[in-house]
Task: inverse folding
C-alpha cells in the first residue's frame, strides 16, 4: 500500500509542487534567492569593471608598496614620508587601536562611576550624573569631538609660554610633563644594558602574584583563614623589581622633554588631536556605559542583597560576591557593544586630524593614489576584522557565563 | 466620690516635629549630608557646579545680539559690560539661524519644508497615538511622495506617477488572482510596477507635463542643508529601513540556509564597519557599481547608504522583538492553519513591532545624531555649516556660538525623543 502510494507520488510530480509542496518549496526559494544574489552580484561586478575600464583604472594592491610621501605626526612605529602606503596603513590601524584601547579604559572608568553615582542616595550627585549622561548621550559625538578639541586648544597654554625666564606656564612633576595646547609631552623611558633583567624580574613577579593569589584562595578554602592578600600582592609587585633596578645600577632612565626653539623636543608627545578624540569618545561612550551599568545593578533583585545580608555577609562582600557577579552578566554584553561603537566612532578622528586608519588609508592614501575601490575595501575589512574578533570573543564569554539552569 | 480620673479625657494638640526633621533641613540632612563621605562629595559637587556655571553663565548672558560681525560683537560687548569682558556673540545665530535650519533653501520657499515637517507629524500620528482614526494611515502612505514633492518641488506628475506604480502593483494583487492564480498575481504585482517605472512612466510624465504643466518651483539638492537635511536623511533612513529591516530579521530567523546566510552576512557586515566608511562608499564608490552613465545626486546616494546602515541595526532590533515573543504565539498561529506570511503579518509582526518600538525610537535617535557625519563628505548639514560660516569674513574666528546652537537643537530633539520612548515603554508594558 505504502509502496504504491510512494510510486504514485513520484509519478505525480508536477512542476507546481516546487512551490506548493512544503517539501520542495524551501529548496525552490533558496535556489531563487541564490540565483538572484548571483545575478545582482554579477551585475554590480560587470558595471564596476566596465566603469573602471572607462576610467582606465586597474584593480590591484600594488599601490601599497609605493612611497606614501606624506607625514604622520602621531605614530607608534617608525615611519616617515618615504615609507610605503602599506606602512602608513599599519601606522593608522595602530593609531585606531591606540585611541580605542585608551578610550575603552577611560570610558569604563567614567561609565561605571557615573552609573553607580546615579543610583547614589546623595541627591546632588545623582542629579549631576543625570545631567552628565543626558548631555553627552543626546548630542552627536562628532560635535563633542570638535568641541572638546576647541576647548582644549583655547584653554591650555601655548608651548611658547613655557619659554625663557619670564615663562607664564611651568611643567608638572619636576620638569617632567608639559601640558600645552599642542599636546602633552612626557618623558620617554630609555632602556640601557641590563634593563631586560629588570623587566624580566617584573614580569616574573606578576606571575608570582598570580600564583600567590591562587595559593591563598586554596588555603582559605581549606583552612578558612583569610590572608592580607592585597598588601602582600602590592609588595610582590614593587619590591623585587625596584631591588633589581638598583642592583643593576639603574639601567632604565628617562628622557625628559625640553623646550628648544619653538617647541618641546625629546620625550613622547601625545598630540592634542589624540587627547581631544580620546576624551570626547570616552565621555560620550561613558554616558552609554553608565546607563548599562545602572540597568545592570537595578536588574539584580533586592531579595539577593537581603538574602546575602541574612547570611551575615558584610556590605562590601555582598557587593563583590553577590551583586556584582549577577549584575555583570547583564552589563557585559552592552558594554562590549559600546566598546565596538567606540572603536567605530574613532573613525571620526579625521575631523580633528588624528591619523587613524580612516584618515591614512581612507583619506590621504585614497586621494593620492585614486584607488577608491581597494582602499575602501581594505579599510572596511580592517574594521570588520576588529568587530568580528570582538564579537567572537563576546559570544565565547556569553557562553561561559550563561546561567547554568537545571 | 470625686470625678477624679487618671485617664486623660481630652487629646493634646500635635506638636510640630523638631526643626531638624522637617522641610528643607530634613531633606538636606538625608540627601546631602548623611555621612562624612557624603558631605565631602556634596560640597565638591556644589563647588564643581558653581565653577562651571560661573564660567559659562556670564559668557552666555553678557552677549551681543545685534552686531553684524565678530568685531562688532566684541566692540558692543566691551561697550556694554566693560573692557575685557568675554561674551557670546549671538548675533551670528540671529543672522544665520535660517541657514542653520534650512541650508541654502530659497528664503521665500521656507514654508515648504515647514509644511513638510508638520505633515510628517500628521503622517506618523496614527503610529504615535492610538486615538487617531485609522483612516489617517492612508495619508501616511501618500506622505512620502507629498513630502518629496514639497521639498524638491518640480512637476507634480513625477510623484503622482510613482504612486501610480504602487497602485498598479496593488491592483494586480487584488484583481489578478482570479485570472492567473495567487502565485502569478504576486509575481505580477512585483514585476508590473517595475516595468511601469522603467519604461512607461518616463513618457507618461513628459506627456502630462506637456498637456498640463502643473508644478511648483524646483529646488536643487545642493541648496538643501542645515537641520532640514539632517531630518530628511534621518527620517527617510528610518522609514525606508523599516521594511528592509523586517525582511532581514525574518530572513535571519529563517530555517532556509542560503537566505539566512545572506541576511546574516549583510547585517554583520554593515554593523561591523563605521558609518563613515559607508558614506565614503556613497561619495566615491557607489557610481562605480551602477551602469556607466548613471549618476545620482549625493543626497540620494547618502540616503541609500544610510538606509542600508539603519536597516542592519533595525533588523537586530526587530529580531529582539521576535525573540521576545513567547513560542506559544508561533504555535497558535500554526494551529490556526495560517501560512507563514499570514502568521507573520497577522500574529507575529504586530506584537514584535510593538515590543520593538522603544528600541526603534532609540535607533532613530542614534541615526539622527549620526547624520552629522555627512558633513565629512561635504554636505552642508549643521556641522558642515559650522565650518562654512567662519569662512565668511565677518564671522572669521567664531567657534562656540554656532556649536552651542547646534548642540542645543540636537539635544532638544533627541532628549524629547528619548523621553517619548520611555513613555512608550511604560505605556506598552502590558505585563505585570
Result:
Amino acid at each position: 500500500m505504502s509502496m504504491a502510494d510512494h510510486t504514485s507520488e513520484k509519478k505525480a510530480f508536477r512542476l507546481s509542487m516546487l512551490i506548493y509542496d512544503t517539501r520542495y518549496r524551501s529548496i525552490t526559494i533558496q535556489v531563487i534567492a541564490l540565483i538572484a544574489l548571483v545575478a545582482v552580484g554579477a551585475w554590480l561586478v560587470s558595471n564596476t569593471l566596465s566603469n573602471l575600464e572607462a576610467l582606465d583604472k586597474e584593480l590591484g594592491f600594488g599601490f601599497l608598496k609605493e612611497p606614501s610621501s606624506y607625514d604622520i605626526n602621531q605614530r607608534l612605529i617608525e615611519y616617515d614620508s618615504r615609507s610605503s602606503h602599506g606602512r602608513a596603513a599599519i601606522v593608522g590601524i595602530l593609531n585606531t587601536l591606540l585611541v580605542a584601547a585608551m578610550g575603552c579604559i577611560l570610558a569604563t572608568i567614567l561609565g561605571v562611576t557615573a552609573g553607580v553615582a546615579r543610583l547614589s542616595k546623595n541627591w546632588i550627585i545623582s542629579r549631576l550624573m543625570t545631567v552628565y549622561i543626558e548631555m553627552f548621550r543626546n548630542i552627536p559625538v562628532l560635535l563633542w569631538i570638535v568641541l572638546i578639541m576647541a576647548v582644549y586648544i583655547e584653554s591650555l597654554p601655548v608651548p611658547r609660554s613655557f619659554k625663557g625666564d619670564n615663562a607664564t606656564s611651568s611643567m608638572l612633576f619636576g620638569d617632567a610633563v608639559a601640558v600645552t595646547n599642542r599636546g602633552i609631552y612626557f618623558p620617554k623611558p630609555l632602556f640601557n644594558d641590563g634593563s631586560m633583567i629588570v623587566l624580566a624580574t617584573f614580569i616574573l613577579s606578576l606571575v608570582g602574584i598570580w600564583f600567590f593569589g591562587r595559593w591563598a584562595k586554596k588555603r582559605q578554602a581549606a583552612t578558612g583563614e583569610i590572608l592580607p592578600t592585597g598588601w602582600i600582592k602590592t609588595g610582590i609587585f614593587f619590591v623585587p623589581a625596584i631591588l633589581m633596578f638598583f642592583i643593576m645600577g639603574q639601567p632604565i632612565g628617562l628622557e625628559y622633554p625640553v623646550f628648544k626653539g619653538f617647541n618641546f623636543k625629546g620625550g613622547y608627545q601625545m598630540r592634542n588631536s589624540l587627547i581631544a578624540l580620546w576624551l570626547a569618545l570616552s565621555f560620550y561612550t561613558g554616558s552609554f556605559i553608565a546607563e548599562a551599568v545602572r540597568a545592570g545593578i537595578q536588574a539584580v533583585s533586592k531579595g539577593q542583597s537581603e538574602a546575602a545580608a541574612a547570611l551575615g555577609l558584610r556590605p562590601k562582600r555582598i557587593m563583590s560576591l553577590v551583586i556584582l557577579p549577577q549584575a555583570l552578566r547583564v552589563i557585559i554584553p552592552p558594554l562590549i557593544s559600546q566598546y565596538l561603537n567606540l572603536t567605530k566612532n574613532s573613525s571620526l578622528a579625521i575631523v580633528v586630524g588624528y591619523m587613524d586608519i580612516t584618515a591614512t588609508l581612507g583619506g590621504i592614501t585614497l586621494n593620492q593614489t585614486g584607488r577608491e575601490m581597494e582602499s575602501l575595501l581594505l579599510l572596511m575589512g580592517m574594521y570588520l576584522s576588529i568587530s568580528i574578533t570582538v564579537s567572537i570573543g563576546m559570544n565565547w564569554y556569553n557562553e561561559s557565563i550563561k546561567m547554568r539552569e537545571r | 466620690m470625686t470625678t477624679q480620673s487618671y485617664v486623660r479625657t481630652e487629646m493634646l494638640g500635635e506638636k510640630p516635629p523638631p526643626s531638624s526633621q522637617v522641610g528643607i533641613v530634613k531633606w538636606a540632612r538625608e540627601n546631602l549630608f548623611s555621612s562624612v563621605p557624603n558631605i565631602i562629595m556634596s560640597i565638591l559637587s556644589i563647588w564643581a557646579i558653581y565653577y562651571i556655571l560661573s564660567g559659562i553663565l556670564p559668557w552666555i548672558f553678557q552677549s551681543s545680539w545685534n552686531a553684524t560681525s565678530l568685531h562688532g560683537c566684541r566692540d558692543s560687548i566691551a561697550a556694554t559690560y566693560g573692557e575685557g569682558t568675554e561674551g557670546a556673540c549671538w548675533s551670528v545665530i540671529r543672522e544665520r539661524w535660517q541657514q542653520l535650519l534650512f541650508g541654502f533653501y530659497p528664503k521665500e520657499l521656507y514654508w515648504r519644508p515647514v509644511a513638510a515637517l508638520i505633515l510628517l507629524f500628521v503622517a506618523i500620528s496614527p503610529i504615535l497615538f492610538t486615538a487617531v482614526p485609522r483612516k489617517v494611515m492612508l495619508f501616511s502612505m501618500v506622505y512620502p511622495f507629498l513630502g518629496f514633492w514639497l521639498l524638491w518641488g518640480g512637476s507634480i506628475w513625477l510623484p503622482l506617477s510613482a504612486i501610480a506604480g504602487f497602485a498598479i502593483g496593488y491592483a494586480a494583487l487584488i484583481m489578478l488572482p482570479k485570472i492567473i492564480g495567487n502565485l502569478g498575481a504576486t509575481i505580477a504585482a512585483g514585476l508590473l510596477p517595475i516595468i511601469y517605472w522603467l519604461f512607461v512612466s518616463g513618457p507618461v510624465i513628459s506627456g502630462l507635463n506637456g498637456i498640463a504643466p502643473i508644478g511648483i518651483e524646483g529646488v536643487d539638492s545642493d541648496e538643501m542643508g542645515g537641520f532640514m537635511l539632517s531630518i530628511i536623511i534621518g527620517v527617510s533612513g528610518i522609514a525606508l529601513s523599516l521594511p528592509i529591516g523586517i525582511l532581514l530579521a525574518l530572513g535571519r530567523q529563517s530555517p532556509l540556509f542560503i537566505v539566512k546566510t545572506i541576511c546574516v552576512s549583510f547585517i554583520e557586515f554593515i554593523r561591523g564597519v563605521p558609518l563613515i566608511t559607508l558614506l565614503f562608499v556613497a561619495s566615491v564608490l557607489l557610481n562605480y557599481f551602477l551602469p556607466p552613465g548613471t549618476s545620482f545626486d549625493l543626497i540620494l546616494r547618502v540616503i541609500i547608504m544610510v538606509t542600508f546602515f539603519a536597516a542592519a541595526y533595525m533588523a537586530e532590533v526587530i529580531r529582539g522583538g521576535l525573540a521576545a515573543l513567547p513560542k506559544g504565539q508561533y504555535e497558535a498561529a500554526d494551529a490556526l492553519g495560517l501560512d507563514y506570511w499570514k502568521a507573520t503579518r497577522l500574529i507575529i509582526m504586530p506584537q514584535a513591532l510593538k515590543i520593538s518600538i522603544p528600541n526603534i525610537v532609540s535607533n532613530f535617535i542614534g541615526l539622527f545624531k549620526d547624520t552629522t557625519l555627512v558633513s565629512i563628505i561635504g554636505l552642508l548639514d549643521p556641522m558642515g555649516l559650522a565650518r562654512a560660516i567662519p569662512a565668511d569674513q565677518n564671522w572669521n574666528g567664531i567657534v562656540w556660538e554656532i556649536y552651542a546652537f547646534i548642540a542645543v537643537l540636537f539635544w532638544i530633539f533627541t532628549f524629547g525623543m528619548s523621553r517619548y520612548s520611555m513613555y512608550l515603554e511604560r505605556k506598552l508594558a502590558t505585563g505585570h
Q: What stands out?
A: Strands of chain B lie at 154-155, 215-216.
